[in-house]
Specification:
InterPro entries: FUR (IPR002481), WH-like_DNA-bd_sf (IPR036388), WH_DNA-bd_sf (IPR036390). This protein is an alpha+beta fold. The protein contains three helices and six strands, in the order H-E-H-H-E-E-E-E-E.
């Protein structure tokens, strides 16, 4: 069964595509105002994660952030990179280098959550 593309899904997808950093459900709620309710945003974001459209990042502040995927699909979600949160401007970004982490024989990774906080190149000057 094909998934229906609703106005709410399209608004959230457009917002994620246009964002320069990862966004939380709260940030999307502020941006979309009353057009989409909180529960719908959260449900759509989780659906987008399952479909390989976005990946979920657990920040050092305990909140989840969502970043648009570039080369992922439902069956091939690859995000072995660090995420960076600027303590001044608050932007959260995916750092470009994918990591290969050697694990003991027999281990198979499913999720990687590497997070760094500090000052981005714009704020550290």
């Amino acid at each position: 069964m094909a998934k229906r593309n609703t106005k709410a899904k399209q608004l959230i997808l457009d917002s994620l595509r246009n964002s320069q950093s990862a966004v939380s459900q709260e940030i999307l709620q502020k941006e979309l105002g009353t057009e989409v309710d909180r529960a719908t945003i959260y449900r759509i974001l989780n659906s987008f994660c399952d479909d390989g459209i976005v990946h979920k990042i657990l920040g050092d502040d305990g909140k989840y952030y969502f970043a648009f995927c570039i080369h992922c699909s439902e069956k091939a979600h690859q995000h072995n990179h660090f995420h960076f949160r600027c303590l001044q401007c608050g932007n959260i970004e995916c750092l470009p280098n994918e990591l290969e982490i050697p694990l003991p024989k027999g281990y198979r990774p499913v999720n990687f959550n590497g997070f760094i906080s500090g000052y981005c190149s714009n704020c550290s000057n």
